[in-house]
Amino acid sequence: MAYWLMKSEPDAFSIDDLQANSPAHWDGVRNYQARNFMQQMKIGDDVLFYHSSCKKIGLAGFAKVVKEAYPDHTAFDPNSDYFDAKSQPEQPRWFMVDVAYSRHTKQLISLDILKSLPAFEQSYLTKKGARLSVMPITEVQWQAVLELERS
DNA sequence: GCCAACGTTGGC
DNA sequence: GCCAACGTTGGC
């Protein structure tokens, strides 16, 4: 069982949207490293839902992987913002997973708080210039987040 | 296979 | 809206 963090711009898709449309497919990932991580996801893995590029940046909720990686069909659709002519149905380049809503965080766990946690001193999230939208989270980091939820 | 130009991400 | 830090592209 593994832990992951997935970023989403809440203006486009927020934790509220996931709650209202659960499970949802996580389409539109067009970065190889992020894709590779998604391909490692297993059913039942825990996901931290992160709101990026917005007023309240940070962890907004919890989700679970309910379907493992399969071709991202938005790459095949010329009308989609995520269309990629180089991804063909016979040989898809991009993949997505399905995630189901678990719950909101009690309150938003801001990026500042995350940065203040020793567990997150070394992470894809807080690393300078980090732009990865899908990343693994360690057991220690996961527990640190749960600890915040208890306090 | 190098690397300059370009596009994107995402915090501020 | 700015821009630093990246990732990707494409000419050579």
Describe the structure.
By secondary structure, the chain is an alpha+beta fold. The chain has helices at residues 15-20, 32-40, 111-116, 139-150; strands spanning 3-8, 24-25, 46-51, 58-71, 95-110, 134-137. It has a six-stranded mixed beta sheet with strand order 2-5-4-3-1-6. The longest helix is centred in the last third of the chain and has 12 residues, at 139-150. It is globular and about 50 Å long. The protein starts with a strand and ends with a helix. The model has no long low-confidence stretch (mean pLDDT 94). It binds a DNA duplex (12 and 12 nucleotides) through residues 7, 9, 30-33, 52-54, 57, 111, 128-133.
The end-to-end span amounts to 25 Å
Q: What's the helix-strand series?
A: EHEHEEEHEH
Structural class designation: alpha+beta
Strand neighbour order, sheet with most strands:
2-5-4-3-1-6
* Residue fraction in strands: 25-35%
Using only C-alpha atoms, the radius of gyration works out to 15 Å
Tally of helical segments: 4
Largest sheet: 6 strands, mixed
Residue runs with pLDDT of under 50 for 5 or more positions: none
Q: Fraction of residues in helices? A: 10-25%
| Mean pLDDT across every amino acid position | 94
